[in-house]
Each structure stands twice: as structure tokens, then as C-alpha cells.
Amino acid sequence: MNQFIPVEKNIDEELEKIEIHLLLEGIFLHYGYDYRNYAYPSIRRRVWHRVHAEKLLTITSLLEKVLYDSACLQRLLADFSINVTEMFRDPSFFLEFKEKVIPLLKTYPSIRIWHAGCSTGEEVYSMAILLHEEGLYEKTKIYATDINTDVLRVAKSGQFPLENMKKYTNNYLQAGGERAFSDYYKVTDTGVKFDSSLSKNLVFAQHNLVTDSSFNEFHVILCRNVLIYFNRELQNKVHQLFYDSLGMFGVLCLGNKESINYTNMNDYYEVISQSQKIYKKIK
């Protein structure tokens, strides 16, 4: 029996880049999904993971399978989708948001928030809890979007693993939570389900930051640790989308590894919090 041997360590790097270019171009031309400007090292790792998972030997063979097998395409797109999240991830961010952004939001008669790249929704529910405790949730609509319909289905359900609650409770308390975190969910046979009152003002929808346009004007946009997977050209394109989607004095929240610096939009914002990457549109 022939033993399957990974070959990417020995492949010519220039040939590998050509194969990946053809794969991404084929996906775009045939299906309309555009991953051509994602950060190359990240895409490369995920492409080779899918090559091995499909028991193939080359990226070109993966291209052939993807073009003729839509189920294989979906598996590859799932590999491309980055779904790392948790409740009150980076508690210091939520503390800073509470201190420096909430006072601004309290001046508005209604609030629209866009959480772009929401994954399975833990941070969306975290924001709903924060706004509830600040007395703002009733006048807020949160639009939570992601390219991946599978993670959106999880987010919409509001159901998460019970074993995660200890860590999430600790995050909540570090983020300045004012109640018992367990007040917000009920334990079920399959995990925990967050209270329906938290989801009544949430709208979950599929949206592709690469190809889709603005769909509303927002007071706050959160896109945390998504842009790190895009190259500079695509980052600038998405920053233009966010700029077009924010009202004047709207707030943009990025991840701790991201920055508005060195983008085309740098001069259009002022810093609210450099450490937590929170910016206000001023032009």
C-alpha cells in the first residue's frame, strides 16, 4: 500500500505560488469568492491543510477537485474562515469601551452597531450584555455579519458549550461586569443558551467584507482581529468600506494586533484609545 507523503516541504516556492494563485483565481472566477488578497502565509497553511485532508498530493489537484466538487469547495472555505473568539475576549477592551465610548453613545436617541466578522457570536452577546448593563440595549440594533453561514447559525442560536463558561465568567468580571454572569444564560442538555432578551435586537446576516458594499450607517463598527489576515491592498479596501459605513464621529474598533496607522484612512480618525485600538471618525 502506498503511504501518503506530504510534499509541500520539497516543492519549488515559485511553483507553489503559481499553484496557489491559480487556485484562488479559479475559485473567484467560477464561484465568486475572492480570497486573492488574503495574507499569503495564512492562505498557504490552509491550502496545504485541505490538500492533506482530501488525501491529495498537489495544490493543482485540489483546484481540479474544488472546481468540480462544490462540497470540497465548502470545506476549503471553512478552512479559510478564521473563527477564534470568546465572550468578553480581551477584557481590557470592553473596560475601555465602557469608559470612553459608552458616554458618547448615551447622547444618541438610537444606536446602530455593526460587528463585522462576528464568527460564532460570543463577542456580539458580550456587547449586548455590556449595553444592557449600561441601560442602552433597548435603543440599540446590532448587525452581526460573517462570510461563513455555519458560524452564523451557531451565533443566531445563542447556544455555547458549558465548559467555556468558567473562562467567560472570568473575562466578564475582568471587563467590569456588574452581575452574576450566570444570570444571562440557562444550562441545557447540550450546553448553555443565552437569554432571548439579549438576542431581540441582534440581526445576523451573511456579508463578505471583500466583495460586498456598505448596507447602513453606523455609530460603531467592531472588526477585531480580522484584518490581520488581509494584505495591505485588501486592508485599505475594507477600511474604505468601514469609513463609508460610519457616520461622523462614529467609532471604529479594531483588534489588538491591528491599527489604523499606515492605511489610507489614517488622517480621517482620531485616537480614542491607542492601546485598545479604538478610533473616532473626524472627517
Question: Helices, strands, pairings?
Answer:
Layout: H1 13-31, H2 40-53, H3 59-68, H4 70-80, H5 91-100, H6 102-105, E1 111-116, H7 122-133, E2 140-146, H8 149-157, E3 159-160, H9 165-174, E4 185-188, E5 191-194, E6 202-206, E7 218-223, H10 232-245, E8 246-254, E9 269-273, E10 278-281
Parallel strand pairs: 1-2, 1-7, 2-6, 7-8
Antiparallel strand pairs: 3-5, 4-5, 8-10, 9-10
Percent helix, as a range, is: 25-40%
The biggest beta sheet is recorded as: 7 strands, mixed
Q: Give the percentage of residues in beta strands.
A: 15-25%
Mean pLDDT: 93
How far apart are the termini? 66 Å
* Spatial strand arrangement across the major sheet: 6-2-1-7-8-10-9
Indicate the radius of gyration in whole angstroms.
21 Å
Shape: globular
How many β strands by DSSP?
10
By secondary-structure content and strand pairing, the structural class works out as alpha/beta
What count of domains describes the coordinates? 2
By CATH, the topology of the largest domain is Rossmann fold
Question: What sequence of helices (H) and strands (E) makes up the elements?
Answer: HHHHHHEHEHEHEEEEHEEE
Q: Unreliable runs, pLDDT <50, ≥5 residues?
A: none
Short description:
With 283 residues, the chain is of the alpha/beta class.
